[in-house]
Amino acid sequence: MNKVKIGIIGYGNIGKGVEAAIRQSSDTELVAVFTRRNPESVVLKTPGVKVVEIKDAEKYKNDIDVMILCGGSATDLPEQGPEFAAMFNIVDSFDTHAKIPEYFATVNKAAMAANKTSVISVGWDPGLFSMIRMLSGAILPEGNDYTFWGKGVSQGHSDAIRRVTGVKNAIQYTIPIDDAVESVRNGKNPELSTRQKHLRECFVVAEEGADKAKIEADIKNMPNYFADYDTIVHFVSEDELKSNHSRMPHGGFVFRSGKTGIDTVNNHIIEFSLKLDSNPEFTANVLVAYARAAVRMNREGCHGAKTVFDVPLSYLSAKSHAELIKGLL
Ligand code: NDP
C-alpha cells in the first residue's frame, strides 16, 4: 500500500512532534515542512526532507495527501485553517473551545467547495477527552460530566500569554484542585464552579520596560482563557524560565458519574485519564492517526469539516479492518 504523504505547516512544538510521530508510523512519510520564517533558519531532524516557504505550499498540491496544521490556535489557525482547507486535506489541533463551532463552519465551507476533508480540533482536549465525554454521556444519560486538567503546561494558554503585549516568553500550568477530584471519584456528584476545579499559574518573562501591572491584568482578564479562573502570575527571568519550566508535561481526567436502575439505583463511574511527559509529542501522535483517517475519508468522497465525533474509529489505525476485528474485538 502507498504511504500517506504528509506535509507540516508550522514548525513549533507540535510541528516537531509530528515529525517524530511520522517516523513511528510505518504507513506515513513526511514530504515537506512549510514555514513563515526563512526556511534556512529551520533545521529538521529528518534528513532529506525540504523546508519550504509557506507561500509555495500550493505547488505541492499533487505531492501531499494531507497537511497537518501546527500553528497556534489564538491567531494562526483561524487564518491558516480555511486557507489550507481550500487546497489540501487538513488536520489541526484548534483548541479555543468556545470558538470551535464558528471555526468548524468556516473550514467546512472552504473544504466542501474544494472537495477536501478537514479534521479539526484533534488532540487530547479537544480530541480524545471530547470523544470520551460524548461516549460516556451516550452510555450513562443520567449523570454528570467532570473534566480536570493537569498539573501540566497548557500549550494553548502559554501561546495566548506569549501574544500579550510586553510579554517576551511565558509558561502556564493548569492545576486541578485535589479535593474536587476525590469528591467526584467517590461518586459525590459535587456542583463545582470553574474556579473550584482548577488554578492557573503563569510564569512570565516581561520585555524590558514593559508595564507588568498591565500584563498581569491583560492575562487575568483574557476571555476564554483566564477570566473564569483564579490565576497567579509570577514574573521571572529568562534563565529561571529555561531552567525550571522548560518541560511540557500534561494530562488530566474525564469522569462521568451516572446512575441506572428503576427499583434499585446503581451508581457508575467512568474514568479516563492521561499522564503525558510531553503534551506536544502526544498531541502530534493523535494528529498523525487522524491524518491517516482524513485521507481515507476523502478517498471515499466524505468531504467537508469533521471532528473526532465524525471519524470512524477503525480509520485511525494503520491496521486493516479485517486485522482489527480479528485481533481486538
Ligand atoms: P508553538 O508556539 O511552538 O508554535 C506555533 C507556531 O509558531 C509554529 O507553527 C511556527 O510557525 C511559529 N513559530 C514562530 N517562531 C518560532 C520559533 N522560533 N520556534 C518555533 N516556532 C515558531 O505552539 P505549539 O506547537 O506548542 O502549539 C500549537 C497549538 O497546538 C497551540 O496553540 C494549541 O492551540 C494547540 N494544542 C492543542 C492540543 C489539543 O489537545 N487539541 C494540545 C496541545 C496543543 P512557522 O514555522 O510558520 O513560523
Task: Briefly say what this structure is.
By secondary structure, the protein is an alpha/beta fold.
Description:
It is a single chain. This protein has two domains: 170 residues, NAD(P)-binding Rossmann-like Domain (Rossmann fold, 3-Layer(aba) Sandwich); 149 residues, Dihydrodipicolinate Reductase, domain 2. The model has no long low-confidence stretch (mean pLDDT 96). A hairpin with a 5-residue loop joins β12 and β13. α1 crosses α10 and α2 runs parallel beside α3. A seven-stranded parallel sheet has the order 3-2-1-4-5-6-14, with helices on both faces. It has 329 residues and is of the alpha/beta class.
Give the C-level CATH assignment of the largest domain: Alpha Beta
The CATH superfamily label of the largest domain reads: NAD(P)-binding Rossmann-like Domain
% residues in beta strands: 25-35%
Report the major sheet: 7 strands, parallel
Count the E strands.
14
Overall shape: it is globular
H/E series: EHEEEHEHEHEEHEHHEHEHEEHEH
Terminus-to-terminus distance: 24 Å
Average of the residue pLDDT scores = 96
Rg over alpha carbons: 21 Å
Flag low-confidence runs: none
Helix fraction?
25-40%
Structural class of the secondary elements? alpha/beta
Helices, by number, come to 11
Query: How many structural domains does the protein architecture include?
Result: 2
| CATH architecture assignment name of the largest domain | 3-Layer(aba) Sandwich
